[in-house]
């Protein structure tokens, strides 16, 4: 981890991770939530991406953690730089 923070809460079999300016790389920050429902095995993420404080776009990601070779569904919206 190169910066930012994450916290989590749990309620029964649901864990919610909150990312705040989380950085795996040096140039992109991620903020938002990731929920993991262990009863249904569904993981969902809704995050925003920023570079140098400027918004880049958003991602919505969903997959079933119980599926072997699970395929994630990703919806992205990015700002176009001109």
Task: Offer a few descriptive terms.
single chain; 82 residues; mainly beta; globular
Write the SSE topology.
Layout: E1 3-11, E2 14-23, E3 29-37, E4 42-51, E5 54-64, E6 73-78
Antiparallel strand pairs: 1-2, 2-3, 3-4, 4-5, 5-6
Description:
With 82 residues, this protein is mostly beta strands. It has no helices and six strands. It has strands at 3-11, 14-23, 29-37, 42-51, 54-64, 73-78. Strand 4 (42-51) and strand 5 form a beta hairpin. The chain has a six-stranded antiparallel beta sheet with strand order 1-2-3-4-5-6, with no helix packed on it. 4% of the residues are buried.
Write a concise synopsis of the structure shown.
The chain is an all-beta fold and 82 residues long. The protein has strands at residues 3-11, 14-23, 29-37, 42-51, 54-64, 73-78.
**Strand portion, in percent?**
over 45%
Task: Give the proportion of residues in helices.
Answer: under 10%
> Uncertain regions: pLDDT < 50 for 5+ in a row?
none
Distance between the first and last residues' Cα:
31 Å
Number of strands: 6
| Helix and strand run | EEEEEE
Q: Given the helix and strand composition, which structural class is it?
A: mainly beta
Gross morphology:
globular
User: C-alpha Rg, in Å?
Assistant: 14 Å
């Amino acid at each position: 981890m190169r910066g930012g923070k994450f916290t989590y809460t749990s309620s029964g079999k649901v864990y919610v991770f909150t990312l705040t300016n989380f950085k795996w790389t040096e140039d992109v920050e991620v903020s938002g939530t990731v929920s993991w429902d262990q009863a249904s095995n569904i993981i969902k993420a809704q995050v925003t991406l920023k570079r140098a404080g400027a918004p880049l776009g958003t991602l919505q990601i969903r997959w079933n953690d119980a599926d072997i070779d699970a395929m994630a569904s990703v919806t992205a919206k990015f700002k176009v730089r001109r």
